[in-house]
Specification:
Helix content: 40-55%
Number of domains: 3
Shape: globular
Number of strands: 10
Strand order of the largest sheet: 2-3-4-1-5-6-7-8
Distance between the termini: 20 Å
Strand content: 5-15%
Structural class: alpha/beta
Radius of gyration: 30 Å
């Protein structure tokens, strides 16, 4: 790659009487998909130059095209090609693999955007958002409570309070209750251990604040900024009834109402993320404070000691009051999208976490007070807190399901997943992930501390172990895996039958070439496997439903047995007890092993491009959406990418009178392209052609996020842009048709494209052609044909001079740039 040249000077206002050649210049803006691509790959040239942007995301051109607008005579048969590279927003060094530990937060944030389409149901939509934000808040409390369970209960209270356990862990010697040091009192041990969960909360705040500054705080381009580029008034008409300057005075039909992704404040979540970050940070500190102050206050109430009970009651009262404020902040305000809200609640952002941290400090001081008669035994009474937290999550998910079902019933869309229950199902999965991760970590730490024994089993054990509910949650994992075998087997059988049924169809498509059983079988298998993507919704529904039922069973079982799963209060049910112990042990090891694989796989995904493509689908879908529910989720790269693309298109069309633009997006790049087009002013959007290929716009986004990519928004996008073509293959597991066909328009979709291009060996293609699937759409001749058709539909690129001096439009537009975009 050639050294990046400095960005060119700011575009100057166009002359008042532009030359005819200058008026026809066209631009093709390429956007790559999942996995990233280099500018050289996208532009098909090793010599590239950065036009605008930075190392994270930038627009590049071929070196020879750097100032293409100044030489329009060179681009009569093709547009000027630009490549927008955004892979730096989602991939980087291996440390970003740690973001995978925030997966429950990312998943619950997805649930916010999965609500069904709502027409005139403002209150129901607000209630849906409030419920999702409360579920997200419960996940923050759960994570902090799990950290308190490990640090305060297992380490400081149980292991340090037991002589044999403390002796095996020499680094805990100074905390041992049997050495009689200053730290040996339980309250002081708890106060010191509180540093661990408090530091975890502080780390989450720091990461959220850092990414907030890098993503949400970057303001998109205002239309007023566009006017500064446009003193001649190219964009003077932005209304829905504005005339088309290229339609010979005729007016286009009124544009539809701009959808949600076209609202000015959609990609500017600065205020809501700051508010939620303050609330969640405060909730984390309050959870730690409650664990520390609660233990000390309970001891003071049960025995006469040197510490006045009023002190503990005052701290607990302050914690309760601050908790109510946190809940009010979370419920009070959602996202501001209709206008770009530049305000910040400075007092709230500063004083709410500060107040919670002050209460934590008071709780630490209260617990550190000398209590010579206080001895630690058993475990801290956190069982009820975990039960209530799990029960509250279940009730919130059920309430969310009722609201989502009501919204869907009033505005049904047949292709919406799970009949509108996709959001609640995903929220349930987020809670399950949080429960599994916290329960597994607590159980593994307890096993490690107890050495050869099994915590809580009563046979040669030193510590009581984690709360019974966490053990029950671990025991649910093997049962859930066994239940998953049924849908997996169903999918395997159905895929095999589909592949056999496709065999004759494939041979007929490639007739009259002689059949090849092996070739046919391979093509059919890939097509049938690609169709599995459409089965994902009911798999999610089955897993979520089973998780809800098993979670309810775990709560009920933990209430019935306070010792181990399966053991009743009278010690009966030995068979159930042995089965539950085996399930709990297996689940604990599975969680620990899965956790290690999870982190290792995440790190490999950010270092290995092929591994990233494997898991990049879920990750890029999850981080595409703004942080509307959980501020500790990984940052939204689209908060930067979409304004980048919209600003580039607006600036180019403003400085190129009557110039036309084709934005070409592959895979996830097509979603970014469509989102950027929605952000354009109406007059600019009518000068834009959209080319998508391997696009998940309808197949994934339209079904899972119907309120934002459903039939109505996509139809509105089709009517507002100048023209749109979408290419897809039956072998593609990600891309698919967008299913828009508005009479008398022939539609947007072109496909399914033939894949492979040749069934066997031919004189033109003497070697076996690969089955491309989701990649390399540019290799298909249809790609060049459709791009040329879009350029032709946009209008003549450069008016040519005839012999008589009369200008005539060029009749046949050749293929544009040969740039590539990888997914």
């Amino acid at each position: 790659m050639a050294p990046a040249a400095p960005p060119p000077p700011q575009p100057q206002p166009p002359p008042s009487s532009p030359s005819p050649q200058h008026t026809g210049t066209a631009l093709e803006l390429l956007v790559h998909g999942v996995g990233g691509a280099t500018p050289q790959e996208m532009l098909g040239d090793p010599r590239t130059v950065r036009v605008t942007g930075d190392k994270t995301a930038a627009v590049y051109r071929r070196t020879e095209d750097a100032h293409g607008e100044k030489h329009p005579e060179r681009y009569r048969d093709e547009p000027v090609a630009e490549a927008y590279c955004w892979s730096g927003l989602t991939s980087g060094n291996g440390s970003r693999a740690l973001w995978l530990l925030l997966l429950p937060f990312m998943v619950v944030n997805l649930a916010h955007w999965m609500r069904p389409t709502a027409t005139g149901r403002t209150r129901a939509v607000r209630l849906y958002g409030v419920l999702v934000r409360l579920v997200a808040l419960s996940l923050t409390v759960l994570l902090t409570a799990a950290a308190c369970e490990v640090a305060l209960d297992l380490l400081a209270w149980q292991c340090a309070g037991t002589e044999s356990c403390a002796e095996r862990r020499s680094w805990l010697g100074f905390l041992s209750a049997h050495q009689g040091g200053w730290w040996s009192q339980p309250g002081r041990r708890l106060a010191l251990a509180a540093v661990v969960p408090a530091a975890l909360v502080g780390l989450l705040w720091y990461l959220s604040n850092r990414t907030w500054s890098a993503y949400e705080s970057q303001r998109p381009l205002d239309e007023g900024d566009i006017d500064a580029y446009d003193p001649e008034g190219v964009h003077e008409a932005h209304g829905p009834d504005a005339p088309d300057p290229d339609a010979d005075g005729a007016r286009r039909p009124p544009a539809p109402v701009r959808p949600a992704l076209g609202r000015p404040g959609f990609w500017y979540g600065r205020r809501i993320v700051a508010r939620l970050r303050a609330a969640h940070t405060a909730a984390g500190f309050l959870t730690v404070a409650a664990a520390v102050a609660g233990a000390a206050a309970r001891h003071d109430r049960s025995a006469d000691g040197p510490v006045p009970q009023i002190f503990g009651a005052a701290v607990e009262g302050g914690i309760a009051l601050c908790t109510l404020v946190v809940i009010w902040v979370v419920c009070r305000r959602g996202r501001s999208e209709r206008t770009r809200d530049t305000r910040l609640d400075a007092a709230l952002i500063t004083y709410l976490p500060g107040s919670a941290l002050a209460l934590l400090a008071l709780a630490v001081v209260h617990a550190s007070w000398s209590r010579p008669d206080w001895q630690s035994s058993g475990s801290l009474p956190g069982e009820t807190a975990f039960r209530l937290l799990a029960l509250g999550q279940g009730l919130l998910v059920v309430a969310l399901a009722l609201v989502a079902r009501d919204l869907y019933r009033r505005t049904p869309e047949p292709r919406t997943i799970l009949h509108g229950l996709g959001g609640p199902a995903v929220a349930m999965l987020a809670c399950a992930l949080g429960g599994v991760m916290t329960g597994g970590v607590a159980q593994r730490v307890a096993d490690w501390l107890d050495g050869p024994g099994s915590p809580g089993m009563g046979h040669g054990t030193d510590i009581a172990g984690p709360p019974v509910l966490l053990s029950w949650q671990a025991s649910v994992i093997p049962v859930l895996l066994l239940l998953l075998l049924v849908p997996v087997l169903v999918l395997i059988v159905r895929t095999a039958r589909t592949a056999r049924r496709l065999g004759p169809v494939i041979e007929e498509e490639y007739a009259p070439e002689p059949p090849d059983e092996g070739r046919t079988r391979r093509i059919a298998r890939i097509r049938a496997t690609a169709a599995l993507t459409d089965s994902a919704p009911w798999i999610v529904g089955v897993v979520s439903g089973a998780t809800l039922l098993l979670g309810a069973g775990a709560i009920a079982g933990s209430w019935r047995s306070d010792e181990v799963p399966g053991r009743a209060a009278d010690g009966s049910w030995p068979l159930l007890e042995s089965f539950a112990e085996a399930a709990q042990s297996t689940g604990s090891w599975l969680i620990g092993f899965g956790f290690v694989l999870f982190v290792a796989g995440g790190r490999r995904a950010y270092k290995d491009a092929s591994a990233r493509r494997t898991i990049g689908i879920l990750w890029d879908v999850g981080t595409f959406w703004p942080r509307a529910a959980h501020p500790f989720a990984p940052p939204c790269y689209a908060e930067r990418a979409v304004p980048d693309l919209a600003s580039r298109m607006s600036a180019w069309t403003a400085t190129t009178p009557r110039g036309r633009l084709v934005i070409s997006g592959h895979s996830q790049g097509s979603v970014l392209a469509a989102s950027a087009v929605w952000q354009l002013p109406d007059a600019t959007r009518r000068r834009v052609a959209l080319l998508t290929y391997g696009s998940p716009l309808e197949r994934l986004y339209g079904r899972w996020f119907p309120a934002y990519f459903g039939p109505e928004p996509l139809l509105g996008l089709h009517r507002s842009v100048h023209c749109w073509r979408n290419l897809w293959r039956a072998t593609d597991p990600i891309g698919g048709p967008v299913r828009i066909c508005a009479d008398p328009d022939p539609g947007v979709d072109r496909g399914p494209l033939k894949d492979p291009l040749a069934y066997g060996r031919t004189t033109k293609l003497p070697l076996p052609e690969p089955i491309l699937g989701h990649s390399d759409y540019q290799a298909d001749p249809v790609f060049a044909e459709e791009r040329a058709a879009l350029l032709d539909e946009l209008g003549p690129l450069v008016p040519r001079q005839t012999g008589g001096g009369r200008q005539q439009p060029e009749g046949d537009v050749q293929r544009g740039s040969s740039g590539r975009s990888s997914g």
